[in-house]
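User: Show me an example of a complex going from sequences to structure tokens.

Assistant: Sure. Here are the input components:
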Amino acid sequence: MNFTFHRKRIAGVLVVVPENERSFSEDMKNFNFPEARSLKLKEVMGYDKRRVVEPGVCVSDLAVFGLEHLLGEGLLKRDEIDALLLVTQTPDHFMPATSSLIQGRLGLKQDMLCLDINLACAGFVIGLMQAFMLLEQESVNKVVLINADVLSRKASPKDRNIYPLIGDGAAITIIERDDEDSVIHASVKTDGSRAGALIIPAGGLRLPSSPETAHLEEVGDNNLRAKDHVFMDGSAIFNFVQTEVPPLIENLLARAGVTSEEVDYFLCHQPNRFMLEKLADKMKVPYARMPNNVVEHFGNNGSVTIPTVMAYNLRERLQREQLQVCLAAYGGGLAWSAMLLKLGKLAFNNIIEYK
Amino acid sequence: MKLVAEILKEIRPEFDFTASSDFIADGMLDSFDMVTLVATLDKNYGVSIPGTDIVPENFQNLKTIEALLRKCGAKL
């Protein structure tokens, strides 16, 4: 499905990462797996450092910390927030919405919309689309999009398929109307028939958590995982990305009348370095224009990886100038999405540590 | 340039890859081994095996791996 938006812009990006850093060298001791094979995997996938929350830290804690930073620094005014969108797969509670908790903790005005969106790694692009749609309303002048997850709390430390790649974090993106006559193109697709490829089987009402669902089971390849933990069919997800994402981007660029060479950066969701290199090879994009270094520094922090690459790789540039970027985000659902936009000159584009 | 069998032996030294016709069914290569193998083959043969070709049927045995490499332009 295709979308076009006019006169909308990203005004600023703030990424919050936990202060707590883990290393792959520490993690691999937990795996029932020869060290030499783990080290080869580290080299290929780019596993190294990652940021994860301490026990008990929730999505709302990261979000409130980041928003208080922006309010304290005068980068955002409390009363100008007309909508607060939270994209997360790891809410504080089933009920109420975590966005309402964030609004309440910050004492924001009542005359605003708070909305939780249950999306995984595709959630940055789809969250932006929701924000742009809200800005069509005269009463909405500024939208705060929060992408946040603490998925490390749902990953089995004994599951080499997922544990060494998971990071936690939050990104706060400020979206507003653009005085310039800007045009943003976006596309999104969904295939719920493949939803089982990325799932936390237990803990919802279909399979409530119990002592049985917390029990670690041998799940092949010497991995141990419980039904309360996140499961990822790595091969299925890898093939999904390689098959579905390149045509989505090609069609988006063709619709916008923009060539691949005219795109300054392809800012793609970053599950691991290998997947991004293969995506770049397939799309014939040099690695330098499709950065893949978020995982090695922060881990895969879900829908936060794209704002993280903006702030980590292009911090000063995006504050100084405007770049033509193509965003691509894909993951649980399964959902995949892409967006072509002019990004910059951002009022702020930083990473801070949650302490 | 290393042979495919030598590369496989480096990844999983405990197995004899010349004695199997189905590495996946025989439990000699898991999905992460396939990733390590592809990265090593790419480097060794100066090719980029497409992501869409990283499927178990292309890594069943020495013949299927060599056929994949030839398809990608590698000179064996």
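The lines above are the inputs; the final block is the predicted structure for all two components together. Residues 84 and 114 of chain A are 5 Å apart (CA to CA).
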